[in-house]
Amino acid sequence: MTSQPTTQQTSTPPDRATAPLPHDENVPTPARRRWLMLAGGFALVVLLACLPLLAISLPGVLPGPTYTPGTLQVLALALLVGALALSYHLLFGVAGLLSFGHALYFAVGVYGLAIVLDRTDLPLLPAACVVLVGGIVVAHVVGAISLRVTGISFAMVTLAFAQAGNVLVRRNPAGATGGEEGLALDTTHVPDALVGVMNTRNLYWLALVVLVVVYAVVLWVERSRAGHVAAATRENEMRVRVVGGRPYLVKLLVFVVAATLATAVGMAYLLLQSGAVPRVTSADFTLTLLVMVVLGGVGSRWGAVVGGVLYTLLDQRLGALAASEAIAGLPSVLRVPLSEPLFILGTLFILVVLFLPGGIAGAAQRLSHRRRREGARDLMEESA
Fold first, then answer.
1. pTM assigned to the model
2. pLDDT at 77
3. To pair with 223 at 20 to 30 A between CA atoms, which of 5, 135, 216, 325?
4. What is the pLDDT of residues 27-56, one digit of tens each?
């Protein structure tokens, strides 16, 4: 007589099998995080818009209270440089195009608007539209030629075009660019609200609007189909070709959009600075944009803005620090290097590259991931 073997089945108790894991209220869901970021961005824009109406003083960071023209001038410049760095992020961080000639399109906006206002009777808005169309045409021509090559060859071709623009500006053809002395802004057809020291507040608000518009355009391009194809091309262009994509056209589109945004920022820069100088056409200026993007974090939109703003504030304030009595009283071994703002900026950049890989945005992302891992570990311990 054989007995049938009995199979002993073990099952999880119903209360433990069906009970959901407890939710940690401190860890937001992805949808909630998006809403929090949107609300935080809106609140930040409102705060920045209210700065000219407030009396906030940050000694060592700002030259005076936030309502003073000098401080608003520095802040507006920082916002415009942040917008320009954001346009370079679209080119380098999204499409992976290392360009050494992005300053060319910024210079088209600066010098183009100055020349049109000086040589024609067009009001500001029609003149700005003419210059914007000119920037698009220049970007199409340069991009169509430069994108025939890739890698360092592409960078060298863009550098060659930028240097040609720099030479053209310094040669002062027909007295149009002012040569080494630059070109002053003709305010005849510029609204009175954008002219004069007393209207610096309006120029600050204009710079803020430009930054918001540039950010919105960059965000739209990144989330569009062309942006996704551009990111895929950056990672593996051959694979995009195999699946039927057209990398050349997508890269050209991103190139033109980034150049057009730089042209728009250049026109606002002209109104803020009341003139054009040859430095904005130099390759050094493009390298400065690259430093800003790397400082903020390659591939991060807000990182590019933070990098541009931070670099501008440091560039503006380190000069005052270098000439201060505190530096003058130091021993020569410290006084000599600290009296050079570029030395301090270079040292800070080296420290960021060594100790903050991924820039400021990368450090913030790692900190956020660490907090999420700790929250998930605590959640698992509680559920156990």
1. 0.85
2. 94
3. 135
4. 556 677 778 878 888 889 999 999 999 988
Q: For residues 278 and 180, is the Cβ–Cβ distance under 8 A?
A: yes
Residue 382 has pLDDT above 80, yes or no: no
CB contact at 8 A, 125 and 307: no
Residue 151, token pair as written in the block? 């890698």
* pLDDT given for residue 23 in this prediction: 47
> Is 5's pLDDT higher than 60?
no
By residue count, the chain amounts to: 384
- Please report the pLDDT score of residue 354 as a whole number: 81
